[in-house]
Amino acid sequence: MTEVSQELAPVSPSKLTVRGVSKSFPGRSGTVLALDEVDLEVSEGEFVCILGASGCGKSTLLSLVAGLDAADKGEILTDGRPVVGPGRDRMVMFQDAALFPWRTAMGNVLFGLELKPNLDRAARREVATYYLGLVGLSRFAGASIHELSGGMRQRVALARALAPNPSVLLMDEPFAALDAMTREKLYGDLQEIWRKRRKTIVFVTHNVREACVLADRVVLMTPHPGRMRSSFDIELPRPRDINAENIAALARRISKKLEAMGGEGST
Amino acid sequence: MKRALTFLAFVAVIGILWESLVALGAWREVLLPRPSSILRYLAHAFLDGSLAEAAIVTARRLFMGYAIGIATGLPLGLLTSRFAIARDSIGVVALGLQTLPSVCWVPIALLWFGQTEAAMLFVVVMGTTWSILLATEAGVRSLPPVYLRAARTMGSKGLHTMFRVLLPAALPAIVSGLKQGWAFAWRSLMAAEIFVTILTGFGLGHLLHYGRELHAMDQVLGVMAMIVAVGLLAEQALFGPLERWLRVRWGLLG
Ligand SMILES: Nc1ncnc2c1ncn2[C@@H]1O[C@H](COP(=O)(O)OP(=O)(O)OP(=O)(O)O)[C@@H](O)[C@H]1O
Ligand SMILES: [Mg+2]
Q1: B88-137: pLDDT as tens digits
Q2: Band of pLDDT at residue A7, cut at 50, 70 and 90
Q3: Residues B229, B158: contact at Cβ < 8 Å?
Q4: CATH at B186
Q5: In chain A, what residues touch B153 (CB-CB under 8 Å)?
Q6: CB A146 to CB B250 under 8 A?
Q7: Which of A66, A100, A146 comes nearest B153 by C-beta?
Q8: Is the residue at B12 inside a domain?
Q9: For ligand 1, what atom is nearest to the CA of residue A60?
């Protein structure tokens, strides 16, 4: 292909576009501007980490993209179409697992599938079984939620979010409450699953190293009001090891940057 | 097991003490007969079938009234928990009527339905519906919102959300509401049976009432004991397995 025809070829629209989005909440001491003119572009198959301190509007942004809340201003598009409500093309893994305690692990994974048209009982079971296997929980299909450890619960939540086969996966600090060992195992598994299932992932965290291990790109946010700041492309080879020196060095750089911005952001 | 033995020993001691006090002439037997004559009445009434018959009549009314109470209270509770308009109308009515002691429904029931089964059922239903409605509403409204949000992302809405998310999620609260409703139904029915005299079906409450009319204190006390036994037994049989199942599935529920 010549350079000219490459230039003229239609630009593939990004998978997810957030443009000029603002959202405020009424608070006790006046309105809180949770998001202020936020822009974000995520392309197909990209793994983006949104990194920021507590209260900078990360969860708010995910709710808006998920269609659970409406923005005050701006627009959100997936595949070029505006988001008007929740949809199976965007699944969420919530900050706390949010699993349904009245259902087994299998029952939780089946929930979204039961709402999907054109799947009969056997097909649903087969799909759910596949995803439980993918997250390594085949043996626990029949377990009650309270019988599972924190890490296993997050695995079920991941399987439940993957099962309806969304193209975008929204993850809200899914591993924040887990111990380091469990988390490290999950980083490996998540990258493997991401590679296998070709998802576009927006992953929210306040853990710098976590972002460095997982992301293709890290976007920094600052609080009060919540704003998008600089972003870092991370081109380290995968699978990455959270204890490796290159990750640590990168994390130090990003932390410095974040600190510098924090001073500037909070006035 | 040890606790049961302790309790049995306690009952035995009280019984023997009571029996000997009556034998010593501490009070007149017309007012408080000795345990042995109460037992004699119970044995007699059991053998001639009058006790069992009354218990069956009572149980039938109880289950019917309770079932109707659930069938109305539960859906209404789901409605009031979800829609402000239902909460501000039916919800407020329920809040008020729930404070009304069930005996207060007897006059209106008699005027509307006469001395019939319907009057009796009406009293029981009025005694249960509102408390079940309120318990259901409270249960649903105290749910963590994340269940609803998770369900919405997976495409659940409307009736699906109501029956597949809200109802099961609130089940622990609803079960304790049902248990409370059961207690209310039982109390209401006894009030109804004592105050509504009808010719069809002679319940435990009636047996108690006529015991008083006949000055048969052994009957009064015997039937009271029977009412306690039925109440305890039914609660165990009904809610025991349900609560055990909740404990297994939900894990935490006490
Ligand atoms: N439903 C709400 N009502 C009122 N204020 C809200 C609501 N949701 C969020 N906020 C406010 O908006 C701001 C951003 O909240 P958000 O939950 O998005 O932060 P976050 O980055 O996810 O924080 P964390 O890391 O602690 O989860 C906070 O100041 C919070 O108090
Ligand atoms: Mg959050």
Answers
A1: 999 999 999 988 988 899 999 999 998 889 999 999 999 999 999 999 99
A2: low
A3: no
A4: 1.10.3720.10
A5: 66-68, 86, 90-92
A6: yes
A7: A66
A8: no
A9: 18
- Domain-embedded: residue B230: no
Residues of B in contact with A146 (CB under 8 A): 250-252
Q: Is the CB of A60 under 6 A from ligand 1?
A: yes
Q: How many domains does chain B have?
A: 1
pLDDT at position B13:
94
pTM here? 0.83
Specify if B246 maps to a domain.
Answer: no
In the numeric block, the tokens 């704003």 are attached to: A227
Residue B124, judged by CB atoms within 10 A of its CB (0-12, 13-18, 19+), counts as buried
Share of chain A above pLDDT 90, in %: 67
CB contact (8 A) between residue B251 and residue A145: yes
Record: contact B251-A146, CB cut-off 8 A: yes
Determine, yes or no, domain membership for B108.
yes
Domain with B99, as residue range(s), is 52-202
* CATH architecture of the domain formed by A3-260: 3-Layer(aba) Sandwich (3.40)
Distance of alpha carbon B110 from alpha carbon B130, whole angstroms? 21
Domains of chain A, residue spans: 3-260
Task: Report the pLDDT value the prediction gives residue A264, as an integer from 0 to 100.
Answer: 41
SS3 A57: coil
CB B224 within 8 A of CB B32: no
Whole-complex ipTM: 0.88
